[in-house]
Specification:
Blueprint: E1 4-9, E2 12-17, H1 19-23, H2 32-44, H3 49-58, E3 67-70, E4 74-78, H4 79-98, E5 112-115, H5 130-155, E6 159-162, H6 169-177, E7 181-184, E8 187-190, E9 192-195, E10 209-212, H7 215-222, E11 227-230, E12 234-240, H8 249-260, E13 269-273, H9 282-290, H10 292-295, E14 300-301, H11 306-314, H12 319-332, E15 346-351, E16 358-360, E17 368-370, H13 374-382, E18 396-402, H14 405-408, H15 411-426, E19 436-439, H16 445-452, H17 456-461, H18 483-490, E20 495-499, E21 515-518, H19 521-530, H20 548-551, H21 555-565, H22 569-579, H23 582-585, E22 619-628, H24 635-638, H25 649-656, H26 674-680, E23 699-701, E24 707-709, H27 710-719, E25 724-728, H28 739-747, E26 750-755, H29 760-768, E27 772-775, H30 782-785, E28 792-797, E29 807-813, E30 819-826, H31 831-839, H32 842-853
Parallel strand pairs: 4-5, 4-9, 5-6, 9-10, 12-13, 12-15, 13-14, 18-19, 18-20, 20-21, 22-25, 25-26, 26-27
Antiparallel strand pairs: 1-2, 3-11, 7-8, 16-17, 22-28, 23-24, 27-30, 28-29, 29-30
């Protein structure tokens, strides 16, 4: 059933999987996602290809409960997810060598690209030297990590590191790495990949099937294992109409996020279709696709059409390859037809003409508001109306950041921000002194086209000079607030962030800021000028005699500026210049197959879990609850990424080892040191352990009444050979694809995590670390369980009989002798996940498979 055939295009003859022949009359009914998966299994699944193909084809008639193996053609990572993965790999290589095996057995079998984008912080801002100063600080703080990454680039096959300054991973993927159609070894096939970041689906905007996975799962793919998934349930979003004048792709993305979050999209894929799709540029589609994790799905897919070809041309792709993409997609039934309605499991209707100017906040990205309603939202956070004070007001904008791949990858949005700045500058407007302004584009190309359009000078005049090319404020690397804002916070006044990012959880953008609003880049500039969110930004005065209508650019003005700015060779030139980094070239990295561990290092430590392991954590046992948590616990809550406080457990550990207490760096930079990360678990100030709500975050209460930091409590339980569990509410593990959130659970000794529901990537990461995720039965929550430190939980998870979605018996053994019986569901989706749990995690499984084949 492989349906191999040949295809002539571009003067060459290519091997392809004949999709129209393989699918027959079902092809037109299949979502494009299923078409791409069908091609993938027929080409790569070997003896499992026929069964997998039949399962995918059957999905055009209704839901199918069957597993399929997906083999991506490449992997994308960033520096703070690749760091832990590389430490794992270096540790596994050491394990292999100690066991008498060749460490080179452990080598990626497919291309892996790493973008160094997550460590840039906004220390300097507002001046033309800010970018150079921030880059110098980045290398100073992260030199040891970067040398380690450079070692890996030399020691591992097919492993490429893109140095600091080359932009954000998803923009790099859009503008440079993605082929849309791969041409390799005489074959043509769809570009399909995974990334160790939840926003990997951004590239869905140009027709590349991709989704985010945890770093642990990515490691298994490095070494030849497939991504095993059930035939995905595909939800269709039918778009009609056209965006009104003055409404941006950001406004649409926030509306899509709001609408889709109302639906249970766990483990489901989303595909956009309908005539409205054809009115959107590829850049606008990418903005929407970037928000996929925020609306809770695996993908936000847009098929290939003329807009994608236009984007490939505009970003400097080879014309011959662009023609090949079109020919292949038309031949294979992968070309978008706006009149076509595939068979989706569910359809959501969105009329683009009804979208209005929006923000999201103040605490979650799915909480869309009309841009006019920020005053009401701020009052809810504050618990009352704004106070009239001198100086920095209540509801002041402490941070105004044009940041994140989400919106800075669309030139139209960047130009719109520049035009608002130009009009404001002409009127003599500047932001108030308490506003920390910054511009951190996802691509080094942005500076070139903004300068050519004459808009860079206007942005700089308002304080929006480029601080670097990286994630910065979007992931919490926002640097210190202005002195005025810090004083206002000390006096109890509400301060907020306004950013063009994708997440605004309390404390994420900055640890002192409890509220944040997501907005389009031009709206960020407008709020910076206003200085606060205590007004209707659409109609109230931003400055005396000036409203947003006086500043907002028309579509004609944006198009004219884009025409002036555009030059397709910018993309090749800008990236080539950024890749040719003198500072990166000067890094002195080891040249060896094995990494030379340094026990004195505070950045890179050999991890205790990168070996053959201690076996399965399954079985029947009685566990103590070490943590009981509420709803919406994010991976930021579990394993922080931001600044390491000197007075915390992690800070004290580092200071005791000679680190400067005034510059401990951020947790995301220390993920190669398990001792530091262990001490940072659950220390976010918004985390409450319901076992003892009065104790500090990051701690627990033992049955003997002692309150201890979690890592010390884990040592006590480990010495007593007492298993522990974590209990949580809905959407446990939402947010970033942070494998340390799962590694931390394993290091705390958790054999299971019991939750009302799990976010997809974190669930998979827990299994990757050998920890069993259990869904609580309907109606049972942490609150209704009302666990105490004296209670025990008996779990019966027999590894011989456990299967995907199996019932698992629980008994709550109360301290007073009462016993309550419950039945949970194993949150396991595939047979590979069962095998992973039986082996104690993915890293032991990888090592055992490799050595068995050696």
């Amino acid at each position: 059933m492989t349906h191999e055939t040949t295809f002539e295009a571009g003067g060459s003859r290519w091997q392809i999987i004949d999709l129209p022949a393989a699918a027959g009359d079902r092809l037109a009914r299949m979502p494009h996602i299923h078409r791409i998966l069908l091609e993938n299994v027929l080409r790569t699944a070997g003896p499992d290809a026929d069964a997998a193909a039949r399962a995918i084809l059957a999905a055009s008639d209704g839901p199918v409960d069957a597993e399929i193996p997906f083999r991506p053609c490449r992997v994308l990572m960033h520096d703070t997810t690749c760091g832990p993965a590389l430490v794992d790999i270096a540790g596994m290589r050491s394990t292999l060598a100690e066991a008498g095996f060749d460490p080179a057995l452990l080598n990626p079998v497919l291309p892996v690209d790493v973008s160094t984008d997550h460590s840039l912080a906004v220390d300097a801002f507002g001046g033309r030297d800010a970018m150079a100063r921030n880059l110098a600080n980045e290398y100073r703080r992260n030199g040891e990590r970067y040398r380690f990454m450079k070692w890996a680039a030399g020691a591992l096959d097919r492993f490429t590191v893109h140095p600091p300054g080359t932009g954000i991973m998803h923009t790099l993927n859009l503008e440079r790495l993605s082929k849309v159609v791969q041409a390799e070894a005489g074959w043509l096939f769809p570009d399909a990949m995974i990334g160790t970041d939840s926003h990997t689906p951004m590239v869905n905007g140009i027709g590349v099937l991709a989704w985010g996975v945890g770093g642990i799962e990515a490691e298994s793919v490095f070494f030849g294992m497939p991504v095993t998934l059930r035939v995905p349930d595909v939800v269709g979003v039918r778009m009609t109409g056209q965006l009104p004048e003055g409404v941006t792709a950001t406004d649409l993305a926030l509306t899509v996020t709001e609408r889709l979050r109302r639906i249970d999209l766990a483990d489901r894929f989303v595909e956009f279709f309908g005539p409205g799709v054809s009115t959107l540029s590829a850049g606008e589609r990418a903005v929407i696709a970037n928000m996929t994790p925020e609306f809770g799905a695996n993908t936000g897919f847009f098929p290939v059409d003329q807009a994608v070809l236009d984007y490939l041309t505009a970003t400097g792709r080879d014309p011959g390859h662009v023609a090949l993409v079109e020919a292949y997609c038309r031949r294979q039934g992968l070309w978008f037809d706006p009149s076509e309605t595939p068979q989706f499991s569910e359809v959501v209707e969105i009329d683009l003409s009804e979208i209005d100017v929006s923000v999201a906040g103040p605490r979650r990205p799915q909480d869309r508001l009309p841009a006019s309603a920020t005053q009401v939202a701020a009052a809810e956070v504050r618990g009352g109306p704004a106070r009239v004070v001198d100086g920095v007001p209540d509801g002041a904008v402490a941070i105004a950041a044009i940041t994140s791949c989400t919106n800075t990858s669309d030139p139209g949005l960047m130009v719109a921000a520049g035009l608002v700045a130009r009009k404001a500058r002409a009127l003599g407007l500047t932001p108030p002194p308490w506003v920390k302004t910054s511009l951190a584009p996802g691509s080094p190309t942005a500076r070139r086209y903004l300068e050519r359009a004459g808009l860079m000078e206007d942005l700089e005049a308002l304080g929006f000079g480029i601080v670097g090319f990286g994630c910065t404020t979007c992931i919490g690397n926002s640097g210190q607030l202005t002195d005025a804002s810090q004083q206002a916070l000390a006096e109890g006044r509400l301060q907020v962030a306004v950013l063009s990012g994708n997440r605004n959880f309390p404390g994420r953008v900055h640890p002192q800021l409890e509220a944040g609003f997501l907005a389009s880049p031009p709206l960020v500039v407008a709020f910076a000028l206003a200085g606060d969110v205590e007004r209707d930004i659409l109609t109230d005065e931003i400055a005396p005699g000036v409203t947003l209508a006086d500043l907002w650019p028309t579509g004609t003005e944006i198009d004219a500026a884009l025409a002036l700015a555009a030059r397709k060779d910018d993309f090749t030139v800008a990236y080539d210049e950024a890749e040719d980094s003198r500072m990166w070239a000067e890094l002195d990295a080891p040249d060896s197959e094995l990494f030379p561990w340094d026990e004195a290092s505070t950045y890179i430590r050999r991890p205790p879990f990168a070996g053959f392991g201690e076996g399965s954590r399954l079985g029947s046992y009685q566990a103590r609850p070490i943590l009981v948590l509420g709803d919406d616990i994010t991976t930021d809550h579990i394993s922080p990424a931001g600044a390491i406080p000197a007075k915390g457990e992690a800070g004290e550990y580092l200071i005791a080892r000679g680190e400067n207490p005034r510059d401990l760096n951020v947790f995301s930079s220390r993920r190669g040191n398990w001792e530091t990360m262990l001490r940072g678990l659950f220390t976010n100030r918004n985390v409450r352990n319901l076992l003892a709500p009065d104790i500090p975050p990051g701690s627990t209460r033992l049955p003997d009444g002692r309150d201890l930091p979690l890592w010390q409590a884990a040592e006590v339980y480990r010495a007593e050979e007492q298993p522990v569990v974590i209990v949580a509410g809905e959407r446990y593990g939402m947010g970033s694809s942070r494998d340390w959130a799962a590694k931390g659970a394993a290091l705390l000794g958790a054999r299971a995590v019991m939750a009302v529901s799990f976010e997809r990537i974190h669930r998979a990461n827990l299994i990757g670390m050998g920890v069993l995720p259990l869904r609580l039965p309907a109606g049972v929550t942490p609150e209704t369980l009302a666990l105490s430190v004296d209670d025990r939980i008996e779990i019966s998870a027999d590894e011989a009989t456990l299967h995907p979605r199996a019932p698992v018996s629980l008994r709550i053994l109360r301290a007073d002798g009462r016993v309550e019986a419950l039945t949970a569901i194993a949150a396991i989706e595939t047979s590979l996940e069962i095998e992973t749990l039986r082996q104690g995690g993915l890293l032991p499984l990888i090592l055992k498979r490799l050595t068995a084949q050696a």
